[in-house]
Amino acid sequence: MEPILKARGLVKRYGRVTALNNCDFDLYPGEILAVIGDNGAGKSSLIKALSGAIRVDEGTIELDGKPMNFASPLNAREAGIETVYQNLALSPALSIADNMFLGREIRKPGIMGRWFRALDRAAMEHKAREKLTELGLMTIQNIGQAVETLSGGQRQGVAVARAAAFGSKVVIMDEPTAALGVKESRRVLELILDVKRRGLPIVLISHNMPHVFEVADRVHVHRLGQRLCVIDPRRHSMSDAVALMTGAMAPEQLNEFA
Ligand SMILES: Nc1ncnc2c1ncn2[C@@H]1O[C@H](COP(=O)(O)OP(=O)(O)OP(=O)(O)O)[C@@H](O)[C@H]1O
């Protein structure tokens, strides 16, 4: 099987800091790939490169076997890569439906839409409701409700639903449970599994080892700007992962029968 998203030899320098140092990456169809690594290891830089938020100095990125050269996150979105950022990028004062369609609003058909840019609110609300229901998120009563009135978990749910609704190839999630309580995290983890069941592969960046080990099919261990190794969470333990991540253990020392 070929990777749906593949990167080779990525290099990103910020002045004298090398954030990505000849980094490789592979995401396969239908999987949840976790990316873990110590603070400053270069996880965000990798994700930004894959989602078009930064341009790398060297290296190649392929989506579905085609070379990509994203000039912006919009470019990556158009190619089918949706990213749920850590800071969410939702607009608190806008409604749930408006947030879901932020930047890709549905216009009214005909002259009103084309010339007067009139929004087709009914269509957007209908679609937003459909997506949230599909993902079991309709504990949210009112689609016209402002996002600032939602709980942290519900907000994250809206962001995930938006990514799942528009991501046609890949969904990237940066620390989706970081700011959430136990119950809300659980809901978001279930959502992630739902998105996977719908056939979309997911890249999950997380510092939370129990969450990573619960949902990931494979774990990409990032260290010093590179992919150090990829481990199978069914064969290796969380302490193995932490030891690799921090440099306490080398990949060659992994006990394959652990
Ligand atoms: N815009 C920037 N300007 C200068 N240096 C940067 C910039 N972005 C990242 N870096 C540096 O690049 C390195 C990798 O940072 P990056 O944010 O990718 O790591 P990370 O693994 O995501 O860290 P964390 O887990 O703490 O978020 C760090 O040394 C960081 O200071």
UniProtKB/TrEMBL annotation:
Cited PANTHER family: CARBOHYDRATE TRANSPORT ATP-BINDING PROTEIN MG119-RELATED (PTHR43790), SUGAR ABC TRANSPORTER ATP-BINDING PROTEIN (PTHR43790:SF8)
Domain of life the protein comes from: Bacteria
Signal peptide extent: none
Lineage of the species this protein comes from: Bacteria, Pseudomonadati, Pseudomonadota, Alphaproteobacteria, Rhodobacterales
Name by which UniProt lists this protein: Mannose ABC transporter ATP-binding protein /fructose ABC transporter ATP-binding protein /ribose ABC transporter ATP-binding protein
Entry-linked InterPro entries: AAA+_ATPase, ABC_carbohydrate_import_ATPase, ABC_transporter-like_ATP-bd, P-loop_NTPase
Domain ABC transporter: from-to ranges: 5-249
CDD domains named in the record: ABC_Carb_Monos_I
Any one GO molecular-function label of the UniProt entry: ATP binding
Keyword vocabulary terms for this entry: ATP-binding, Nucleotide-binding
Organism: Cereibacter azotoformans
Pfam families, per database record: ABC_tran
